[in-house]
Specification:
Elements lengths: L10 E5 L4 H16 L8 E6 L5 H16 L5 H9 L1 E5 L5 H12 L9 E5 L6 H10 L9 E5 L7 H14 L5 E3 L7 H11 L13 E9 L8 H26 L8 H14 L8 H4 E7 L1 E3 L2 E3 L17 E7 L9 E7 L6 E8 L11 H4 L4 E7 L3 E9 L7 E9 L10 H11 L8 H20 L4 E5 L26
Parallel strand pairs: 1-2, 1-4, 2-3, 4-5, 5-6, 7-12, 8-17
Antiparallel strand pairs: 7-13, 8-11, 9-10, 11-12, 13-14, 14-15, 15-16
Helix pairs in contact: 1-2, 1-3, 1-12, 5-6, 6-13, 8-9, 8-13, 9-13
Bound molecules: NADP nicotinamide-adenine-dinucleotide phosphate.
């Protein structure tokens, strides 16, 4: 079952092929890889769904998904070549017959003699185990080929359930075969973090407690829960976003330079960061974190319903749709530097940023307007909706006086004409090529659950700590109380 350098897979099996993730992310990304000539000629897909579709209905669905994402720019030849690679297999995940049939499909002459397989679980986490058990039953996790299994977040509901899920998974697949996806790691800006720091002598010497005042990480969504109440109301923002995406972003900002760019060296450094996060005492959860839920509000001129009025959400739900927290990393590089994290649904704008504020110079030598005096140098990395970087520096204001003001050096990471990649394109290609650097190793999952565990415990005992915020705003006012200094404010946009 061991993994080593490719040859890549020749079979790519997608469970949950009729679901939202497959439609919105996987198929468009795979089509782009097809168009870019990055899929091996002999790579074949098996799409598994329970809908009673024949091949032409399946093909219609697939093409619609790609066209919706590609818009006008679809390359018909590439799309037809891509669609020709697919076989649709109708089957229930819980039915052993589905796997017997899958085994037969993969053994057909059309599929050739290559045995390397990727299994992509684009399904609810509760369905992961029935699938891996059944794959084992028909021997599809074994054989001469290399088998990889891709699992989506969230990995477990807490530390214990994640360990249990992992134990079960490891009965059938080795850790190096398991690719736990956190699609934030596939974003260009996140990958750029290491390059930005380690390929620029200008930056790395400043990247520590001696020069950095604090770090802010914001992942703001303007959408609500859409039709995912069943999943979201049981999960909440802490589990859905903080335990994975936000802590991965924090680890990517704070990690030490790895010994090499090898997957395990990089992940070793992220684990060290997660392990160094100072535990939040359950009894003081309120000093370190704020959670909120949106009530009715307005955005883009439209009325937006309260979370509790969304379809299928119970009237008495205390599930959080917003979390802000303050963490400290107790290590040599970051001791004493607050990391402020926040994320929520139905916020004022879709925006994901990492903002790093530097310390003030030791002495104010120049005349500066009062409101400008608190302004420091910032580095501001935007992940979405656009990927770019901004550095804020002080410069002399034109004129007779020696006064200063903020100037902004702003750049995209892309030259004109260079296309933007979706994170899933990067990650799917990595799966195909067997590169696990941008995937989460289990010890990272464990350490992340440990970070959020005290908050889960505190909040399960105290529903009064749930704050409210009107939809379309930046979240509960109380989030500003987390700041260590009156000079700290949430960065909302490029100017302030
Ligand atoms: N959607 C996203 O943007 C997103 C983002 C990040 C992570 N994820 C993760 O990705 C995974 C999938 O999410 P999703 O949004 O795509 O969910 P979804 O839209 O509910 O899709 C679930 C898929 O599983 C299939 N399925 C469910 N029960 C089945 C059964 N008994 N037999 C056969 N097929 C069955 C569904 O088939 P039917 O179509 O017949 O119902 C559907 O294809 C989840 O782990 C989620 O947390 C999703």
């Amino acid at each position: 079952m061991t993994e080593s350098a490719s040859p890549g897979p020749c079979h790519f099996v997608i469970f949950g092929a009729t679901g939202n993730l497959a439609q919105v992310k996987l198929f468009p990304a795979l089509y782009h890889l097809e168009r870019a000539g990055r899929l091996n000629e002999d790579l074949l897909f098996v799409a598994i769904g329970r809908r009673p579709w024949d091949d032409s209905r399946w093909r219609e669905h697939l093409e619609e998904a790609v066209r919706a994402a590609a818009g006008e720019a679809v390359d018909e030849t590439a799309l037809q070549r891509f669609a020709d690679r697919f076989e649709y297999l109708r089957g229930d995940l819980n039915e052993p017959a589905t796997y017997t049939e899958l085994f037969e499909v993969l053994s057909r002459p059309r599929m050739g003699s290559c045995e390397n397989i990727v299994f992509y679980l684009a399904i609810r986490p509760d369905d992961f185990l029935p699938v891996v058990n059944n794959l084992d039953r028909v021997g599809l996790n074994r054989g001469h080929g290399r088998h990889r299994i891709v699992v989506e977040k969230p990995f477990g509901r807490d530390l214990e359930s994640a360990r249990e899920l992992n134990r079960e998974l490891h009965q059938h697949f080795d850790e190096e075969q398991v690719f736990r996806i956190d699609h934030y790691l596939g974003k260009e800006t996140v990958q750029n973090l290491l390059v930005f720091r380690l390929a620029n002598t200008l930056i790395e010497p400043l990247w520590n407690r001696n020069f950095v005042d604090h770090v802010q990480i914001t992942v703001a969504e303007d959408i609500g829960i859409e039709d995912r109440a069943g999943y979201f109301d049981r999960t909440g923002t802490l589990r859905d976003m903080v335990q994975n995406h936000l802590l991965q972003l924090l680890a990517s900002v704070a990690m030490e330079p790895p010994a090499t760019m090898d997957a395990n060296d990089r992940r070793d450094e992220k684990v060290k960061v997660l392990r160094s996060i100072r535990p939040i005492p359950v009894s003081r959860a309120g000093d370190f974190a704020v959670r909120g839920q949106y009530v009715a509000g307005e955005g883009n001129g439209a009325r937006m319903a309260a979370y509790r009025d969304e379809n299928d959400v119970p009237d008495s739900s205390v599930t959080e749709t917003y979390v802000a927290l303050k963490l400290y990393i107790d290590n040599w590089r970051w001791r004493g530097v607050p990391f402020y994290l926040r994320t929520g649904k139905r916020l004022a704008r879709k925006q994901s940023i990492i903002a790093i504020r530097f310390r003030q110079p030791p002495q104010q030598l120049f005349r500066t307007a009062i409101q400008e005096r608190i302004r420091s140098n910032w580095i501001y990395l935007s992940l979405q909706p656009d990927e770019w970087m901004q550095m804020e520096l002080r410069a002399k204001q034109p004129g007779l006086e020696l006064e200063t003001r903020t100037v902004r050096l702003n750049t995209g990471f892309r030259e004109e004409g260079e296309t933007s990649l979706d994170a899933y394109e990067t990650l799917l290609l990595d799966v195909i090529e067997g590169d696990a650097s941008l995937f989460i190793r289990f010890d990272e999952v464990e350490e992340s659950w440990k970070v959020v565990a005290p908050l889960m415990e505190a909040w399960s005992q105290d529903s009064r700590s749930l704050r409210v915020y009107p939809a379309g705003t930046w979240g509960p006012e109380e989030a500003t109380l987390l700041f260590d200094s009156p000079a700290h404010v949430w960065r909302k946009n490029l100017r302030g």
